[in-house]
Amino acid sequence: MPQQLTNIVEDLRWRGALSDATPGAEDLLINDKITCYNGFDPTSDSLHIGNLLPLMCLARLQRYGHTPIAILGGGTGMIGDPSGRNDERSLLSIEDIDANGEKIRVQLEQFLDFDAKSNPAQLINNADWLRNINYLDFLRDIGKNFTVNTMIRRDSVRSRMDREGEGISYTEFSYALLQAYDYLVLYEQENCNFQSGGTDQWGNILDGIDLIRRKHGNATNGNSLAHGIVFPLITDSKGDKLGKSIGGAPALDPNKFSPYRLYQFFFNTDDADVIRYIKLFTWLGPEEVEPLEEAVRENPGRREAQQTLAEQITEIVHGQSGLDQARRVTRAFFRGEFDTLSASELDDVFAGASSIEIEKCDIDNRAISYEELAVATNLAQSFSDARRTVQQGGMYLNSERVEDAARPIAPEDLLHGNLIILRRGRREHRLIRVA
RNA sequence: GCAGGGAUUGGGGAGCGGUCAAACCCAGCAGACUGUAAAUCUGCCGCCUUGUGCUUCGUAGGUUCGAAUCCUACUCCCUGCACCA
Known about the structure:
Elements: H1 8-15, E1 20-21, H2 25-31, E2 35-40, H3 52-63, E3 67-72, H4 94-109, E4 122-125, H5 127-130, H6 135-141, H7 148-151, H8 155-161, H9 170-173, H10 175-190, E5 194-198, H11 202-216, E6 227-231, H12 259-267, H13 271-281, H14 286-298, H15 304-335, H16 343-352, E7 355-358, H17 360-364, H18 370-376, H19 383-391, E8 395-397, E9 400-401, E10 419-424, E11 428-434
Parallel strand pairs: 2-3, 2-5, 3-4, 5-6, 7-11
Antiparallel strand pairs: 1-6, 8-9, 8-10, 10-11
Helix pairs in contact: 10-11, 12-15, 13-14, 13-15, 15-16
The chain binds one RNA strand through α13, α15 and α19.
């Protein structure tokens, strides 16, 4: 009998999404309507799957009637958060920050409901207030509330202080004040009394709460006026950060990381991690997840849970059309269903899988070798790599194992008269269109 | 500032005049086994025109028939000490 989730706290707990919360926070989440903000850094021009957890949690809060605020760090991004880093950041130009911010704004908008009647989401850029700060005023009003003694005790600061050569710049050292100030501003202007974030944000969040306490005192019951909740750092069963194995977290921007690739990324999740990820990253509840848990146990080979995870996330991030596309490409590559696809569906596959074009006459003249194509499509890093892999039996042309890396591509190799599929190993595919 | 130590192929880390494209470990890739999994086993893991081939061992020079290995200068890092406070 699946358990029932009757409130947001039970929900988050069941998902393993709640790592810590300030005293009294849970009571408010259950019995009150709160406003919670979460910051997103414009350090890159796309959100990535590491942002999925905070994003989903804001969305979950909204579904339980709370009001979410997504903060775009257009101001804080100019300084750089030292949390969780062991080296000084290089500063981004304002133009880059703003350009990144615009792209991220668009991505954020799809996760939250901005038209809800009682609790519409908000998207705010902290550049609005941070960029106009007067230094002297800030030192007098805000800086006075912080002691350096406490600040240097933070792990993120201390680890950098201990390093002789690098150290931490005054700029990054000051970061904590800015984020605390954000919280104060949001508390005063938006009635925002919750902040969420990863565990690495715990210190920053507490700083903000403390600042609000100094300015506004405590609630009548003695608890803080402001609260914080933090999410665990998501690692796989080997202890690696999610996405680390492929060298960096997959981007949510379909142009940087196609829906197909996102689908595949999650489809390949280990049995040991898949249920945990479903709970963290999808809307599915106990009644859907428990059967999947059973499926992993009883019949892991069918990969029902992995498929569900991949489908759910792809749809959440890229919508129904993105999911359809990912599915079509998957079917085409892994079941070789090219014959059954119509011309327009084929176009869709081309769109969903990165492809390149080559000239028909080069095929007719047998002017292009397999290894050249493999390198050109980035399937192999170098000719040596291509040959090596061929030698090891890891390269395929249209599902035929390639014996000779130097073999030319000939007209009879074309599928549908204009299509070539390269494959490396079991799941790395490249599509080549012949024009 | 003084005195020592160090910078090696993605990471860690051997090598200290030829036998070094450079041990070993991790990561990565391919194959086998499977389930587009994990574990395990095998192979690979600088580049190319596959060769007594080419370019690599912080940067620039030098010594030598020959240097990652020796010398000089420079850059950066680490450890002591001093200076400052």
